[in-house]
Amino acid sequence: MFVREKPRGTVPQPDVAAYARFPSEPPETYRGPNPVLVVEVVTPDSREKDYRRNVGLYQALPDILEYWIVDPIRDAKRPSLTVHRRERGDQPFERLDVEPGGVYEPRRWRGLRLDLSRIALE
User: Fold this and answer.
1) pLDDT at 34
2) N or C: which end of the chain has fewer CB within 10 A?
3) What are the tens digits of pLDDT across the range 14-63?
């Protein structure tokens, strides 16, 4: 991933990325393809970056339609989830907060269900 809109470009590295289409041969450069979903798992050192900086970085890439922030800081056995989502890449993200133990079912990917009560990060 490469964000041209930032000074000198920026190359964020999410903890997890999911692609709609990925070439069968490895890309020659990190400047593409871009994922449709990125996930960050918060650590004490990454909290500010994950909640503030990365929202703008990922929003600048029109291919990214959802950005999930899994936060186990308060309780590793019951992490919370913050979802930034949009229907199209030219729209701003809308924020949705999912409580610890809650369930998130993206409108975009029918059948995908993230049950936070089944996740424990220790």
Assistant:
1) 81
2) C
3) 888 888 877 677 666 556 678 899 999 999 999 999 999 899 999 988 99
Domain that holds residue 96: 34-118
* CA distance linking residue 32 with residue 28, whole number of Å: 9
Predicted TM-score (pTM) of the model is 0.84
SS3 content of the chain, % helix, strand, coil (to 5): 15, 25, 60
CA distance readout (Å), 29 to 2, 54, 98: 10, 21, 35
Structural domains counted in the chain:
1
Give domain status of residue 1, yes or no. Answer: no
Q: Residue 5: inside a domain, yes or no? A: no
Report CA 33 to chain centroid distance, whole Å. Answer: 16
Q: Is residue 22 part of a domain?
A: no
